[in-house]
């Protein structure tokens, strides 16, 4: 073969190899550009761009009407780029300059601004004045960036629901924690281009990536109904509760639910705390006792026993039962609260009288299996699923070890341990026609543009009793309020259904003598319930019908009026005849409260006395700065009027915590002046 041909073949082969190489190279470049281009560009930018994070504003938390309960306010943060600081060689001098401005030791600042990290926060939440001074210094590697701080404009209101956020704006408790992903938003940044030596390039490219504000979480809570509940708790915790005689409970809670949907309209606990200063609060005050604490419910639990007995047709309300004063089970006598018993009575009267032996008879007729079935169906011994961390399960007696005596005590609300939210959810099922609803706190999630991202949907858990059984029990519980032990919650012109409860407190395996958990649960209107409410008062030497019923009465009346629920023309204006041995004071006529604002104390007391009212005072001074109820309010005659005193009416020294909006004034009402009654039994 000629040398010429050989040369041509070699050139052709070489050309083929180069062509193949170029094709492979082009294919590889195309693959890299198309599939990995974005990642490689990001890595390149990361190597010579440095970003200063810009925190997003956390979304608001609002009540169901859009009133702001938690918001973010603008603040600023001082930051450092340690590489620049080290490059300047002035770290010690800069730390000494910043120390008096930031109120931190110079050595701490120096250690932070010279760390081996891309970015360090030197001081968060500095005032605008300090931030301006830092910027004016023009220190290399030191700058400020916009930040935000959580603010709770209503102080303690709904603190246990809202929770609080930490210094880095992360949710730590309550809705702030459970809805962290919706509230926190997406951070932005300010990008600046640097050279390989870490020095900013002159006239370098800057990029601003705007942060995205978090969504608004709108709660089911109604600010006004929450205020009514918290007002009554404040009275209790300051010894001003009706019939409390100055006694202060260890704790108390008031829960209000819309029974047909499971929406919580109020969830208040005391003692409470200010989420703006949560670090200063005693940890025990931050505990949400309505969700996390269990107690023996006492006679309020008889609602559940009665519901099961009616559903299983184990009793007829017209059927007679003889109460001899005690019910004997396994050789043990479980006493009725009334000495000597109630004698012959129908099961309707058993409920009105809260007769222990009568309810024990219902439990025995149900039997252990049936009773435990309804315990589980009503949600006891398990979480309700309400959107709060740390919800307690409650404690049920071990069915395998339970005896007939245990069944007897469980039937009247002893032995088992429940949470307030469990009990209110169960009673709401009785009120709404027999369906257990999941209690809910979040109504909807709203984007910054105002679009509803996640709407509210009620969640039915299960049907427990029939519509007929529910209707029958509503009538029974209405009779309890009209004719029985719940008469202290009677509201003229409104149909109210309810049940009192008193249970001795358990400690070290036994009951504490003379210290009770007093409670009352009610719903109204009884025929078409709009509200279900539970009040639990822990650690008082009084019975539920004496101290808890008036609280429920006041909150219920204020809430019904606020919601525009008009009195029923067919509802009774006076309660029925009291049971023998339990005479209640008559319901008094309505009277108009005169305004005594700005008057000297002596003159104010004279005017109120002439109008037939009694007075209580709070604060120091001789001038009336405020009064509860307010002037022109319609309350019962002979009620107590609370006067807030100060030295100078033009400079108030005491401002009621609920006085934050004019529209609240008309809604705030108090029914006071009830007389205490003498009772000896539990079960009341």
From TrEMBL:
SMART domains: PASTA
Name of a matching Pfam family: PASTA
Subcellular location(s) of the protein: Membrane
Keyword Membrane: yes
The protein, known as: Penicillin-binding transpeptidase domain-containing protein
InterPro entries: Beta-lactam/transpept, Beta-lactam/transpept-like, PASTA_dom, PBP_dimer, PBP_dimer_sf, PCN-bd_Tpept
Annotated organism of origin: Desulfosporosinus nitroreducens
Family: Belongs to the transpeptidase family.
Gene3D superfamilies named in the record: 1.10.150.770, DD-peptidase/beta-lactamase superfamily (3.40.710.10), Penicillin-binding protein 2a (Domain 2) (3.90.1310.10)
Keywords, in A-Z order: Membrane
Domain called PASTA: residue spans: 588-647
SUPFAM superfamilies to which the protein is assigned, alphabetical: beta-lactamase/transpeptidase-like, Penicillin binding protein dimerisation domain, Penicillin-binding protein 2x (pbp-2x), c-terminal domain
Keyword Membrane: yes
């Amino acid at each position: 073969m000629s040398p010429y041909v050989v040369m041509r073949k070699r050139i052709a082969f070489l050309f083929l190899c180069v062509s193949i190489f170029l094709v492979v190279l082009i294919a590889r470049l195309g693959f890299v550009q198309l599939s990995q281009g974005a990642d490689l560009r990001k890595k390149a930018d990361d190597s010579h761009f440095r970003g200063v994070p810009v925190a997003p504003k956390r979304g608001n938390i609002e009540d169901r009407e859009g009133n702001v309960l938690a918001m973010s306010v603008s603040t600023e943060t001082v930051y450092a780029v340690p590489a620049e600081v080290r490059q300047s060689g002035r770290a010690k001098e800069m730390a000494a300059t910043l120390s008096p401005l930031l109120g931190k030791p110079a050595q701490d600042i120096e250690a932070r601004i010279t760390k081996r990290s891309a970015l360090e926060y030197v001081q968060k939440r500095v005032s605008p004045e300090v931030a301006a001074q830092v910027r004016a210094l023009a220190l290399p590697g030191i700058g400020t960036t916009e930040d935000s701080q959580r603010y709770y404009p209503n102080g303690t209101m709904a603190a246990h629901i809202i929770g609080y956020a930490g210094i880095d704006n992360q949710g730590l408790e309550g809705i702030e924690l459970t809805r962290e992903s919706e509230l926190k938003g997406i951070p932005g940044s300010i990008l600046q281009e640097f050279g390989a030596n870490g020095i900013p390039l002159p006239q370098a490219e800057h990029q601003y990536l705007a942060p995205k504000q978090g969504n608004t979480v709108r709660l089911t809570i109604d600010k006004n109904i929450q205020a009514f509940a918290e007002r009554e708790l404040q009275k209790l915790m300051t010894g001003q509760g009706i019939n409390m005689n100055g006694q202060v409970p260890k704790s108390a809670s008031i829960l209000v639910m819309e029974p047909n949907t499971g929406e919580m309209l109020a969830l208040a606990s005391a003692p409470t705390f200010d989420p703006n200063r949560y670090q200063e609060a005693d940890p025990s005050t931050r505990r949400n006792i309505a969700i996390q604490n269990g107690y023996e419910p006492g006679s309020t639990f008889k609602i559940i026993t009665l519901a099961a007995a009616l559903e299983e047709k184990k009793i007829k309300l017209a059927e007679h039962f003889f109460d001899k004063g005690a019910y004997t089970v396994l050789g043990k006598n479980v006493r009725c609260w009334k000495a000597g018993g109630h004698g012959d009575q129908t099961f309707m009267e058993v409920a009105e009288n809260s007769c222990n032996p009568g309810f024990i008879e219902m439990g025995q007729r149900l039997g252990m299996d049936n009773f435990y079935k309804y315990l589980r169906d009503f949600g006891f011994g398990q979480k309700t699923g309400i959107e709060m961390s740390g919800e307690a399960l409650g404690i049920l007696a071990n069915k395998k070890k339970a005896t007939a005596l245990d069944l007897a005590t469980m039937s009247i609300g002893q032995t088992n341990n429940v949470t307030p939210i469990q009990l209110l959810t169960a009673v709401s099922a009785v009120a709404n026609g027999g369906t257990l609803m999941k209690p809910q706190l979040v109504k909807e999630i709203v984007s910054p543009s105002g679009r509803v991202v996640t709407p509210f949907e009620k969640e039915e858990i299960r049907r427990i009793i029939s519509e007929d059984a529910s209707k029958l029990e509503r009538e029974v519980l209405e009779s309890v309020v009209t004719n029985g032990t719940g008469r202290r919650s009677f509201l003229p012109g409104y149909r109210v259904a309810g049940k009192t409860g008193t249970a001795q407190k358990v400690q070290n395996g036994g009951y504490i003598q003379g210290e009770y958990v007093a409670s009352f649960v009610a719903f109204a209107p009884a025929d078409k319930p709009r509200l279900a409410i539970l009040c639990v008062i822990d650690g008082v030497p009084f019975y539920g019908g004496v101290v808890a019923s008036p609280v429920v009465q006041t909150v219920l009346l204020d809430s019904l009026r606020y919601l525009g629920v008009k009195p029923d023309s067919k509802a009774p204006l006076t309660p029925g005849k009291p049971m023998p041995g339990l005479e209640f004071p008559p319901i008094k006529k309505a009277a108009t409260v005169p305004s005594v604002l700005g008057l000297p104390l002596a003159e104010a007391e004279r005017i109120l006395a002439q109008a037939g009212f009694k007075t209580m005072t709070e604060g120091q001074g001789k001038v009336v700065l405020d009064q509860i109820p307010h002037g022109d309010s319609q309350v019962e005659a002979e009620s107590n009027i609370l006067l807030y005193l100060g030295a100078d009416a033009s400079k108030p020294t005491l401002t009621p915590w609920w006085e934050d909006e004019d529209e609240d004034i008309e809604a705030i009402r108090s029914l006071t002046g009830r007389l205490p009654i003498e009772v000896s039994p539990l079960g009341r």
